[in-house]
Design goal:
By secondary structure, the protein is α/β, with parallel strands linked by helices. Helix content is 43%, strand content 23%. It contains seven helices and nine strands, in the order βαβββαββαβαβααβα. The chain has helices at residues 20-30, 61-69, 89-97, 108-118, 132-142, 147-161, 176-192; strands spanning 9-13, 35-37, 40-42, 56-58, 73-80, 83-88, 101-105, 122-128, 169-172. The strands form two sheets. Strands 2-7-1-8-9 form a five-stranded parallel sheet, sandwiched between helices. Strands 4-3-6-5 form a four-stranded mixed sheet. Strand 5 (73-80) and strand 6 (83-88) form a beta hairpin. Helix 1 (20-30) crosses helix 7 (176-192) and helix 5 packs antiparallel against helix 6 (147-161). The protein is globular and about 45 Å long. Bound molecules: guanosine-5'-monophosphate.
Amino acid sequence: MSDISPGKIIIVSAPSGCGKSTIINELLRRGEIDMEFSVSATSRPPREGEVHGKHYFFMTEQQFRDAIAADAFVEYEEVYPGRFYGTLKSEVERRCAEGHNVILDIDVKGGVRVKKMFGDKALSLFIMPPSVDELRRRLESRATDTPEAIAQRVGKAEYELTFAKDYDKCVVNDILDEAIAQTDTIIKQFISK
Ligand code: 5GP
């Protein structure tokens, strides 16, 4: 992607259960910030209610591998064993070239990689839980996961939190409205620079 394209990149990462999607969706819903969501490709199956082309481009593993071979990705990661996720060049390049900003919801490794690629053209933002104990409590109260799955997510979260220092900005999601307001301010400051 050319460095002279006017659009900027906003990268948002967080351990699962930190409210990242809620924050991104609320800012997109308000529509105050000129930014478009980059729809990733994934080889995981759709969850109930997920729409192809809106939440993800759902692909088979073979289709995903073909897209890698065709150099279709800005970055991709095997976020869970056998589950690939990737940022499509087609989602990012055209929008940035047209002067729009693009928001990426991607994992910590992808986030750090994209920040390195785009430097000052990108803002990397990490959403954190108030503490690992609080994250565990939230996952338990959602009651959607087994105790083993919760333990796994918490373990992964502890690992992911070690990447927070590599991000430009961190927002602690303790009170959701405050986290949304802080994220809003940080993004507006970045794109007005
Ligand atoms: P989920 O399966 O819950 O939708 O997403 C799992 C993880 O994959 C989340 O951390 C999400 O941010 C990450 N993810 C989604 N799209 C991409 C992508 O294009 N690249 C990378 N590296 N991670 C992604």
